[in-house]
Amino acid sequence: MKAVALMERNGVPIDVATRERLMERWDDIQDRLIQKIDADYGIYEGRTFKWDRFASWLIKNGVPWPRLKSGRLDGKDDTFREMARAMEPRSL
Q: If you average pLDDT over residues 11-40, what whole number do you get?
């Protein structure tokens, strides 16, 4: 209880040196992740998410996606989370 009380008061301890190294390289880390993941999709241009490319990918792969009243694709974080869950392979 004492340890938990201390964490609640002071916050969860972190490795400050590792956090600093991550923050110094954060842009490089993001760029590499985008390149690696986007290689199969072709949706990004540099660090910019391209909605027209995403729409084309959805159509090409037969993926239905929620739309706003305006007809544009729903780009809310919650929508991406819900769609990712819906597309997860079901385990038997």
A: 92
Whole-number pLDDT of residue 90: 59
- Give CA–CA dist 30/87, Å, rounded: 24
- Domain range annotation of the chain: 1-40, 51-92
**Averaged pLDDT for residues 2-9:** 79
Q: In 10 A of CB 59, how many CB atoms?
A: 11
DSSP bridge pairs for 48 = 45
- Backbone φ and ψ of 49, nearest 5°: -75, 125
Global pTM value: 0.71
DSSP three-state, residue 73: strand
Q: Which two tokens stand for residue 77?
A: 């974080």
Distance CA 44, CA 19 (A): 27
Q: How far is CA 24 from CA 14, 30, 44, in A?
A: 16, 12, 23
